[in-house]
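thread: overnight batch results

M.L. [08:02]
morning all. the overnight job finished for the chain we discussed friday. pasting input first so we're all looking at the same thing
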Amino acid sequence: MCSSIRMQFCHLAHSIFGEKGSDVKPRPSIVQDYVELKVQCLSTGSLFEDPLFPADNSTLFYSKPNQPSFTWKRPGEICNNPKFFVSGASRFDVQQGGLDNCWLAVTIANLPSNRPVFELIIPDGQSFEENYAGIFHFRFWRYGRWVDVVIDDRLPTNQNELVYLHSSVKNEFWSALLEKAYAKIHGSYGALNVGDNVESMEDFTGGICEIFSLRLEVPNNLYTIMLKAYERSSLMTCATPVGAERILGKRTPQGLLRSHSYGVTKVQYVEVDTPTLSGRFPLIRLRNPWGRVEWNGAWSDKWPEWKYISKKTKEELKMKQKNDGEFWISYTDLLQYFDRLRICNLHPDSLNPDIYKDDDSKLWKLLSFEGEWVRGNTAGGCRKFWETHWRNPQYRIKLAANLKNDSEKKCTVVIALMQKHRRSQRKIKLGINFELFYLEDPEYLPKPLDRNFFFKNIAVIVPSNFMRLREVSRRFQFSPGEYCIVPSTYYSNKEAEFLLRVFTKEEINMEEYDEDLVISIPAHSRVQEPKDSEKNLIKLTTKTYAKFADGKEIDWVELKEILDEELGHNLDQGGTGIISKALSLFSTKNAKNEADGGFSKEICRSFIAMMDTDRSCKLGLEEFTRLFIVIQEWKAVFESYDKAKTGYLEPFGLNEALKSAGFKLNNRVRNALCHRYASSDGRIRYDDFLLGAVRLDTLMNNFKNKDSNNSNEVKFSLEECIENFIYF
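M.L. [08:03]
and the structure it wrote out:
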């Protein structure tokens, strides 16, 4: 391949916005680089075939894999002279196909009207003419980051017609390929069947959606909100109700489709003076993604009063009286015949800032935090679960009024809570929502807020219900001050990852309100001198050590023999029984995985790593003796929090147990411990607790030794990092 073409593609690579790779869950380790793959195809003269999204039933149907197959064809096999765009892109290009995904089609149809967003999603320079290699790529916002999704151009067809989304012009393919890329990040086309406009609008913009019920609590200034949203290039859709007969897609007498999404393509006041109407009217232009079936009421294409409307007004409205799925409707009729309005306020990254360089008040500012609800730690549930609710993640936000953007000295805030990966992982969405508390004297409050705070204080924002949606969001106006946002699932101990985003019209301060990571007691100082009653144990361990060591240090195999053969039996025979009972709780857990049963290899090696100061992978007598003192201490910690003697720490007990031993951990570290060592019900077995505690102790000790200045910051080389992770 000539070097000039290679340089051209390399230049394109540097212009890619976001990360390379296709965010495909089944094989996340494989990164697909569009530029490199295209170079390879052009150099070999082959057409790209995507191994991560094959042309078979596995990518068509995930719920009914045995359905009849469609024929996969490239655009050049479907028609002559295929084009990526024909005379540019238009909202009229998009025609919904065989999937019940108007929630997606209506968003794709809206994209050409917003050029900055459109050009962000669909990278320039793609065609079926120059350097065609059967490979295309698109960009999507995925839970806080932009990803570049690579696909081949094989599309499912039936009788040589595209089965799913397609253009109104047969040889135009940008919309069909875009739908395929979106299907890929969700695992299949079938995963796109039935959804919510909120998902598609946010995935195509990185914006944040508000949902307005047009039947309940309609804001008095909703039309003004729509006007401002249109000026900010926000995406908007509205949906009709299902109806009493609950037949989806049924046509109403007004020409609307039941339970169907329509795109809002324009919002505008119009001055008219006709025999029946006079004044200034709020109008909205809508489009049906089917490309046909239109509203037939006032302001529709066939409305008789149009003959009295001036030519100038018609030109201003760009009125086209044709059956193309697009029509005008009054704001009053919108409220009467539709039940949901969704507005996606765009993230500043999705806009061209030059458009608003003279008025940055049109841009929203964004702060976002990724978190998770983890069984036994941060999955505290709603306030119904008083004992655990306060364990949920907390986020502190400080608001300051901006008189230019906000009225009545209040701050406009949009808060959105999103649960991640539920569609692509084919999991049922959890009921989620958030509370917001006013912090009257924040400097005197505990960090994080404790059980007493939630018992004594009432939230200023209380969720009316917990909704099984990917995202819940609301717009508020608050007085300046400090607040705490508490996101949660309805039930406790329900695990999920989430993204919390806060949009404001001014800069704000926000932080995760969590404990600092601290070891208040150095590891070695926690190991105290043994009492007189324990000296017999030390003598016995000295004798046992000598028996197995034979004058040398012992390795993990010999340590395992001691634990299995001597401590599990001889200590009881000697009458001390100080640790053998505790050790028996975990001595057989891994028996099925070990040839000779007893203590696991992992635990024995971790014990050695904890005490092995010279990195010999072996223990001397002093190290061996200290090991038993440490085991005894961790045994005492565990037993003080396992009052029922079940051999388990109950969910949410890990934090208190570790605190009593001098560890003060934040949510991130505790979540990692729960993921690694807790069982499916959130409880932690004694052996898992001991193993996790020993490793945590070792890592913290290693860090402290490196942090000679007590700065809580150290530098590790790549070699040191690899060595530490492998050894511990």
